[in-house]
Write a structure and sequence with these properties.
CATH superfamily: NADP-dependent oxidoreductase domain
Helix content: 40-55%
Strand order of the largest sheet: 3-4-5-6-7-8-9-10
Protein name: Aldo/keto reductase
Order of helices and strands: EEEHEHEHEHEHEHEHHEHH
Radius of gyration: 18 Å
CATH class: Alpha Beta
InterPro entries: AKR, AKR5G, Aldo/ket_reductase_CS, NAD(P)_OxRdtase_dom_sf, NADP_OxRdtase_dom
Pfam families: Aldo_ket_red
Shape: globular
Number of strands: 10
CATH architecture: Alpha-Beta Barrel
Structural class: alpha/beta
Number of helices: 10
């Protein structure tokens, strides 16, 4: 059982990745962002997930540097993720995008770099670039985001190495069982973005019932379900009480029956784009 905030899963290349982290999707540059990241690190979070398209890598980098100075945290204690955006997919352009992200973050390396979306005719070349970056020792781990089974199969067909992580939209109404099974069977760590479905699950009767049963919030029930399913999760919040609340997951365990009830809520319902119909 994942029993503390700094517990890690080991990726197939031996790199240890925290099971739990902070996402910063759509958090604008400025004090709110810096304070949220610093507070999370102070509370014991060690994983921070950003992306080029979020437009906040500089603020995340500032927060990391300040947290390291103020709290005595070492760089190798943190796990920092970013992603290459669609317009930069390609071999040379992906390598350049990685260097840009490093510069904005003010870091010498990333722990994980992902292809953000599987843009057809582009993501295979981008994957070759990630393999190069990895082989040159500039990044600890590489992976993909929003990839379906057929996208993964296309990469695996000619790749020198398989993705170490696949970060996808994942919550009780979108369990992506086929993709998760493929990743599990191939040693690719499954990771959830939008695990709380942007708050759309908070009024669900079953989840409210389970929250009462375990004396937890609906958010905590969902995030615990993620962890017990072997899914790394990175809920977003800028509010200190939510950052604390979201991480209080390690003093209870959902029963197998209740895990099944939550999984049965699946309706293949997305809040984000369909990876097979990308128009951006």
């Amino acid at each position: 059982m994942t029993n503390n905030l700094q517990a890690t899963t080991t990726l197939y290349n031996g790199v240890k990745m925290p099971w739990f982290g902070l996402g910063v999707f759509k958090v604008e540059e400025g004090p709110e962002l810096v304070n949220a990241v610093k507070f999370a690190i102070k509370q014991g979070y060690r994983s921070i997930d950003t992306a080029a398209i979020y437009g906040n890598e500089e603020g995340v980098g500032q927060a990391i540097r300040e947290a390291m100075t103020e709290y005595g945290i070492k760089r190798d204690e943190l796990f920092i993720t970013s992603k290459v955006w669609n317009s930069d997919l390609g071999y040379e352009s992906t390598i350049a995008a990685y260097e840009t992200s490093l510069r904005k973050l003010g870091l010498e390396y990333l722990d994980l770099y992902l292809i953000h979306w599987p843009v057809e005719a582009k993501f295979v070349e981008a994957w070759r670039a990630l393999e190069t970056i990895y082989k040159e020792g500039k990044v600890k781990a590489i992976g993909v985001s929003n990839f379906q089974v057929h996208h993964l199969e296309k990469i695996l067909k000619d790749a020198e190495m398989k993705p170490m992580v696949n970060q996808v939209e994942y919550h009780p109404r979108l369990t992506q069982a086929e993709v998760k099974a493929f990743c599990d069977n191939n040693g690719i760590q499954f990771e959830a973005w939008s695990p709380l479905m942007q708050g759309q699950l908070f009024d669900n009767p079953l989840l409210k019932e389970l929250a009462n049963k375990y004396n937890k919030t609906v958010a905590q029930i969902i995030l615990r379900w993620d962890l017990q399913n072997g899914v790394v999760t990175i809920p977003k919040s800028t509010k200190e009480h939510r950052i604390i609340e979201n991480s209080n997951l390690f003093d209870f365990e959902l029963t197998k029956v209740d895990m099944g009830k939550i999984s049965s809520l699946n309706e293949n319902d997305r809040v984000g784009p369909d990876p097979d119909n990308i128009d951006f």
